[in-house]
Amino acid sequence: SAAKNAKEDKVIEAIIADAKMDIPAAMVATQQRQMADDFAQRIQMQGISIDQYFQFTGLTRETFLEQMKPQAEKRIKSRLVLEAVAKAENITVSEEDFDKEVAKMAEMYQMEADKVKELLGEKHSAEVKKDITVRKAVEFVVANAKEK
Questions:
Q1: Distance between CA atoms of residues 75 and 83, nearest Å
Q2: Count of alpha carbons within 13 angstroms of residue 102, beta-carbon side
Q3: Is 51 in contact with 36 (CB distance < 8 Å)?
Q4: Is residue 147 pLDDT above 90, yes or no?
Q5: Which stretches of the chain are DSSP H helices?
Q6: Which of 112, 113, 120, 110 is nearest to 99 (CA)?
Q7: Residue 62 per-residue DSSP state
Q8: Angular region, 112: left φ>0, alpha ψ -120 to 50, beta rest
Q9: Distant-in-sequence contacts of 25-32, Cβ < 8 A, 24+ apart
Q10: 72 with 62: CB under 8 angstroms?
Q11: Over the stretch 47-78, which tens digit does the pLDDT of each residue have?
Q12: Are 71 and 79 in contact (CB under 8 A)?
């Protein structure tokens, strides 16, 4: 799993290194906030509040967000490039692909698949489908990557 992830990261980094794009500052800021919120939730599960984390590390929210900026930009670039690959290669998500993903979610949350679909609604179902498409694009670029 680690080797697979390392290969995926290497291929995606090579692709985004060649990609030329301007990312709006607002998009980066939104990604930074989302990453900060995700981090805060993860450490909260371990019994540490984000304020305690800042006390322990001496960071402020602003410096914490600034440290996340390079990773936020990388995530956005990766996503945009992979979405472009999916579009260029006509990578689509079948209903079967979506149903498999919903089944995984249902198992994780110990719910019925139909209930998960209902809770997702149209907007979140579209996001899940987009995520599946991006994963398929990752698989495509890794499968077609050539060593230099």
A1: 12
A2: 22
A3: no
A4: no
A5: 2-18, 25-45, 50-57, 61-88, 95-109, 113-143
A6: 113
A7: H
A8: beta
A9: 27/76, 28/69, 28/72, 28/73, 28/76, 31/72, 31/73, 31/75, 31/76, 32/65, 32/68, 32/69, 32/72
A10: no
A11: 999 999 999 999 999 999 999 999 999 999 99
A12: no
Q: Which of 29, 16, 21, 27 is nearest to 66 (CA)?
A: 29
* Contact between residue 107 and residue 41 where contact means Cβ atoms under 8 Å apart: no
How many angstroms separate the first and last alpha carbons of the chain? Answer: 23
Question: Which amino acid does the sequence have at 53?
Answer: Y
Using CA atoms, how far apart are residues 124 and 130, in angstroms rounded to an integer? 10
**Rounded mean pLDDT, 94-117:** 92
Contact of 144 with 18, CB cutoff 8 Å: no
| 8 A C-beta contact, residue 102 and residue 113 | yes
Characterise 92 by phi-psi region: left (phi > 0), alpha (psi -120 to 50), beta (else). beta
Q: Could you tell me what percent of the chain has a pLDDT over 90?
A: 72
Question: Rounded mean pLDDT of 105-119?
Answer: 90
